[in-house]
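Thread: Modeling a multi-component assembly for a lab meeting

Hi all, long-time lurker, first post. My supervisor asked me to bring a structural picture of a complex we are working on to next week's group meeting, and I have zero experience with this. I have the sequence lines for every component (312 residues in total). Could someone generate the structure of the whole assembly? Inputs are pasted exactly as I received them:
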Amino acid sequence: MPATGVPAAPAGQPLAQHTGYLLIKLGEVTLAIAERALAPLNLRARHFNVMTMVAADITLSQQDLSGQLGLDPTIMVALVDDLERRGFLRRERSQKDRRRYVLQLTPAGQRTLQRALTVIEEAESKLLAPLNSHEAGLLQELAGRLLAPHWPPRHT
Amino acid sequence: MPATGVPAAPAGQPLAQHTGYLLIKLGEVTLAIAERALAPLNLRARHFNVMTMVAADITLSQQDLSGQLGLDPTIMVALVDDLERRGFLRRERSQKDRRRYVLQLTPAGQRTLQRALTVIEEAESKLLAPLNSHEAGLLQELAGRLLAPHWPPRHT
DNA sequence: TATTGTTATACTCTATAACTATA
DNA sequence: TATAGTTATAGAGTATAACAATA
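Re: Modeling a multi-component assembly
Sure thing. I ran the full set together rather than chain by chain. Output:
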């Protein structure tokens, strides 16, 4: 095509032809939905992520969590502070390495995580409603394949 | 499952089972890739989006653009200021409604958009490399279907 | 010396409200 | 009165650097 012109694009939504644009906007929409679903529990999506990780693996330090979730360690401090202040988890010094914390959900934290999981799965199911179960599984698989080479991100 | 406990999850990546989490992180990764690809042109992804929209439809006002791109109108002002200052587009008052601006790419803007399009498509192709062409088309279609009910977002 | 967690702080980003000019 | 665009500014969110405790 000539250097003097840009090809005419369909007026409707020229950006919708870019898969990348769709993925970015879909990510934003999905995050907004998750935040709205968790708001009644006074939780942010990050709280849910941290609690889910801690519930699955007690041996994770705060910096392990930062790395796996792609958050700055200083943000993790504030997040864990908040969850601890609200009685959802406890910090205990690791016996093997007393610089590290071992994080552990309290019973209240486990109950809250369970409720959060319920609303998250409900929201997710609404978001995925336009897809049949085969398509939903396919999307899950494709997204996972695309993400794998880039996650966790190397912190700048 | 009992209220006193949360089901044991695979330690590897408990969040990866949530499609929503994958979509959010994939969106973040995709945006980061786009920003990195455009950085040598001194453009942000938003610049590219605005220029693409303006190239496709000259009749869009700044608030039309804000709405379609999901950005606050005040952010659009700064964006258009920047593009105008760099000689990539011009503001002209609409004849039909002199409150509105009609935005128009300059020849330099068209050339820059063309170069931006090249690097964006290159980056997109790298991102999608793990998929064959059928899968890539499928992802495009599924993402579009999921996004449609939620876009553009109703500004809070 | 290096690492975990922490604090203080500066920086970016965004949204809010108030204004003007046009309608 | 309402709308398009603008400005100033406050608020949220983030990252940077420096520090204490431990390895």
